[in-house]
Design goal:
The complex is a heterodimer of chains A (246) and B (267). Chain A has 246 residues and is α/β, with parallel strands linked by helices. Chain A contains eight helices and nine strands. In chain A, a hairpin with a 7-residue loop joins β1 and β2. The longest helix of chain A is centred in the last third of the chain and has 18 residues. Chain B is an all-alpha fold and 267 residues long. Chain B has a single domain, classed as Orthogonal Bundle (MetI-like fold), CATH 1.10.3720.10. Chain B has ten helices and no strands. Classes of the chains: A alpha/beta (246), B mainly alpha (267). At the A-B interface, α2 and α4 of A face α6 of B.
């Protein structure tokens, strides 16, 4: 299998301005020598506490973070992201149909094809076709997250970053969204970088997992190996905290 | 107590719409029809009170006040609408670019904005008019430019609020350019705030125009505007109170109607 994503010695720094008057800046080292590869069609988990650099990594891969050292090779066009909060990821001033058509409208795809593909995608993510006429605030969190997934997939991508896509949802809805992501991954051969702090969800979803702390990947490998036999103390702590014991 | 507060905006909105609808009807009627020629002088009718022939009486030249009020409403309305349009379009452009991009462009434009904001708009318009001369369209331009800063600030703060939202990020990931994100994705979210400030801006424009005409630099005689009529009427305040009363009433109703609507939208 070919690698869809290769990250080599990635370092990301942020400059923090201390005040407007002083020109002195502190450099924050958000990611330190991060290296990993991701195979085509794989779901890779990325686990770590908040502030450990998960989102920085996602931004760097998506090209939102322009300043970095190292190498990122992504073999997929239009990488997309599913955001954590389904209440801010959909434009409240636009109807669902408009939101879903937007990626294709930007690419100047004709209107009949857009409509047809939106309908097909709505079927795929398990939403009623009539929801095109609704505004985002008329939908539930789970429905919104389905719309967000549909929108990401309508950009013709094979690579998706899911940034805590279920942590803002109820447990029952979480399970539905996870099942949906797994189904879509199989059907469309997607590769998903699944960011989460919930080790149970990661266990359900992923083939392999990266454990991250303070901008460093401290452990990576097959999910079974790591959950059965964690090498690092921090990983053991995380597993204990999640209530997963061997 | 709470119930009343919730109910009021709705009432205000309806009342505002009714008043505004009446005023707009009068304005549009005034464009096409006035009972008498508003500039026709008839000395024998000088300063007559209300009667069946002249329902609002006649002014110091014997001109029909009702006809002049209709014409004045039209002039005031056109000036206010054009003024607000200039202010809103300029404000949206400046506010969108400064709010969205930030950085040095933001600093420069917002400091220029502050300078403009520091002058009272009437004073600024006076300076402008004294350079370019009096007249309807110079007043529009002068007031319009003076109105830009307040709209620019509102739009800028809205753009700063929305530009970090996830839906903007996802639009960027979908390949939308900066202009598309600014005007197609973010701008529609600012309409509620913008609409109520447009209403308030319209009121300020009506009052500013009345003020300018009162000072004699707006609409030029013999054409009427509500402000110039008030200005003419002040010498006859006691001998012919109807001369000042009706133009004043029209200004009050025009402003009240839009204020109530603005209040209703916000509530």
């Amino acid at each position: 299998m070919a690698a869809i994503l290769e990250v080599k010695d990635l370092n990301v720094y942020y400059t923090e301005k201390k005040s407007i008057l002083k020109s002195a800046q502190t450099l924050k080292h958000a990611l330190k020598d991060v290296s990993f590869t991701m195979e085509e069609g794989e779901i890779l988990g990325l686990v770590g506490e908040s502030g450990c650099g998960k989102t920085s990594l996602a931004k760097a891969i998506l090209g939102m973070q322009k300043r970095y050292d190292g190498e990122i090779i992504l073999n997929s066009p239009n990488p997309q992201m599913v955001f954590q909060d389904p209440y801010s990821s959909l434009n409240p001033a636009k109807r669902i149909g408009w939101i879903l058509e937007e990626p294709m409208r930007i690419k100047k795809i004709p209107i009949e094809e857009r409509r047809q593909r939106v309908d097909e995608m709505l079927d795929k993510v398990g939403l009623d076709r009539s929801c095109k006429e609704h505004y985002p605030n008329e939908l539930s969190g789970g429905q919104r997250q389905r719309v967000a997934i549909a929108q990401a997939l309508l950009s013709d991508t094979r690579f998706l970053i899911a940034d805590e896509p279920v942590s803002a949802l109820d447990v029952t809805i979480q399970a539905q969204i996870i099942r949906l992501l797994l189904k879509l991954q199989k059907e469309m051969g997607l590769s998903i970088l699944f960011i989460s702090h919930d080790l149970r969800v990661v266990y359900q979803m992923c083939n392999r997992v990266l454990i991250m702390k303070n901008g460093v990947i401290i452990e990576q490998g097959e999910i079974e190996d790591i959950y059965q036999n964690p090498q690092n103390d921090y990983t053991k702590l995380l597993l204990e905290a999640a209530g997963i014991d061997e | 107590m709470k119930k009343r507060r919730n109910k009021n905006p709705q009432k205000n909105l309806i009342l505002g719409i009714i008043i505004t609808a009446i005023m707009l009807t009068l304005t549009f009627v005034g464009f096409f029809y006035t009972p008498y020629d508003p500039t026709e002088i008839a000395v024998e009718n000088k300063l007559t009170g209300c009667s069946l022939e002249h329902i609002m009486g006649c002014d110091n030249f014997g001109r029909d006040i009702f006809s002049r009020v209709l014409q004045g409403l039209g002039n005031t309305f056109v000036i206010a609408v054009l003024t607000v349009s200039i202010g809103v379009i300029g404000g949206i452009l400046i506010g969108a670019f400064t709010g969205y991009f930030g950085g040095w462009l933001d600093e420069i434009l917002m400091r220029a904005n502050d300078v403009l904001f520091a002058f009272p708009s009437i004073l600024l318009a006076l300076v402008f008019v004294s350079i370019f001369g009096t007249g309807k369209y110079n007043v529009v331009l002068a007031l319009g430019i003076a109105f830009i800063p307040s709209f620019a600030r509102i739009v800028r703060s809205e753009f700063i609020k929305y530009k970090e939202m996830d839906y903007v990020r996802s639009a960027r990931l979908a390949g939308a350019g900066h202009l598309r994100i600014m005007f197609v994705h973010i701008l529609p979210n600012t309409t509620t705030v913008l609409l109520s400030s447009i209403m308030i801006g319209f009121n300020n424009a009506v009052l500013a125009e009345a003020g300018m005409s009162y000072l004699g630099i707006g609409v030029q005689p013999p054409d009427a505007s509500l402000g110039s009529m008030l200005s003419d009427a002040q010498s006859y305040l006691f001998s012919a109170p109807n001369f000042a009363f009706f133009p004043g009433l029209m200004i009050i109703l025009l402003v009240l109607g839009f204020s109530l609507i603005a209040d209703g939208i916000k509530g």
